[in-house]
Specification:
Layout: H1 5-21, H2 25-32, E1 53-59, H3 67-78, E2 84-87, H4 97-109, E3 116-118, H5 132-138, E4 143-147, E5 150-154, H6 166-178, E6 188-192, H7 202-205, H8 211-226, E7 231-234, E8 240-249, E9 255-264, E10 284-291, E11 294-301
Parallel strand pairs: 1-2, 2-3, 5-6, 6-7, 7-9
Antiparallel strand pairs: 1-10, 4-5, 8-9, 10-11
Helix pairs in contact: 6-8
Length: 310
């Protein structure tokens, strides 16, 4: 029997909070044998200047209009480096044409004219289970976009009862194996989907998966083991957190291959009160700069006035 959605998120946030507060996290990763890949750090990040640079914004979990989301979009509009917006899901409260059109109107009113690439979240499919409205607004998934040396892959794991579909994983395997951009010497492949999984201590604190979705996650990780990527972005959890997701282990369960994952769900929805202050509200967008094969990720906080209790 699975916990309610609220409790699943409580368990996950508590796990992330505890992990984030452990000063020995790096030693833990060394103990399990994870290699030391170039992980996109939230703060401060590193920059190496090469010939090609792609800069984009990442945002998630606004669930429609709210003051923080408005401020974050205004920041993105004002940043002339940003070439496109990557939305990691839960753009709306329940999905459907009406809410998506309202979101597009809001973006237009705020002056957002750059391309918006998006993946659906669990909220986006509540009234749009077949994704038709989402597809009309943002395009059909799965899909990949090539921008200079960046290969950006958009996936759909919004429904926890399903995870990734078999056809989606078939497509992913082919895309990662056959993409011309991935054959470039300085190619960078970034994956985006809504619900994070395979994070540290998930077995202890619980996660948002089902038996079916776990099977699809296992196949997903096997594909990445054969076709490594440089970065994964996810939303769903209303905070910001980095971890290394193990994609391959040896016979002793020692990690031999990982991929950096950044959770970015700070689009304006508050952390539930049940978390008891373990995790502070962290409304934000991410400015991601890909220069050559280096990835710099900078957290940009909301400047909207904090709401106070009456």
């Amino acid at each position: 029997m699975y916990a309610t959605e609220t409790m699943r998120k409580v368990y996950l946030i508590v796990a992330l909070a505890l992990i984030g507060g452990l000063s020995g996290l790096v030693l833990w990763y060394q103990h399990v044998g994870a290699p030391n890949p170039t992980i996109a750090k939230l703060i401060p990040g590193t920059t190496v200047r090469n010939e090609q640079t792609v800069t984009f914004a990442v945002i998630s979990d606004n669930e429609g209009d709210n003051p923080d989301y408005r401020d974050l979009i205004k920041q993105i509009v004002a940043d002339k480096d940003v070439q496109f917006l990557l939305h990691l899901g839960d753009a709306t409260n329940r999905g459907g044409n009406t809410e998506l059109k309202a979101l597009q109107t809001l973006h237009s009113e705020l002056g957002l004219i750059i391309p918006v690439y998006a993946v659906p979240g669990n909220h986006d499919i509540k009234d749009d289970a077949n994704r038709l409205a989402f597809q009309n607004a943002f395009g059909k998934l799965p899909r990949s976009i090539d921008i200079q040396n960046l290969h950006l892959v958009l996936l759909d794991n919004a429904d926890r009862k399903v995870g990734f579909t078999s056809s989606e994983l078939d497509w992913l395997k082919k895309d990662l194996a056959d993409s011309p951009s991935r054959r470039l010497a300085d190619s960078v492949t970034i994956l985006a989907y809504h619900r994070p999984f395979a994070y540290p201590l998930a077995e202890l604190f619980g996660d948002d998966e089902t038996r079916t979705s776990r099977k699809t996650n296992d196949r997903f990780l096997a594909i990445l083991a054969q076709n490594p990527v440089q970065q994964v972005f996810t939303g769903h959890i209303h905070t910001a957190f980095d971890f290394a997701m193990v994609t391959q282990s040896d016979a002793t369960n020692r990690a031999v291959q990982t991929v950096p994952v950044t959770i970015s769900g700070g689009g304006g929805q508050p952390i539930q009160s049940a978390f008891g202050g373990l995790v502070k509200e962290n409304f934000h967008w991410l400015k991601v700069t890909v220069t050559g094969q280096e990835i710099q990720t900078e957290l940009k906080p909301s400047r909207a006035p904090a709401e106070t209790d009456a």
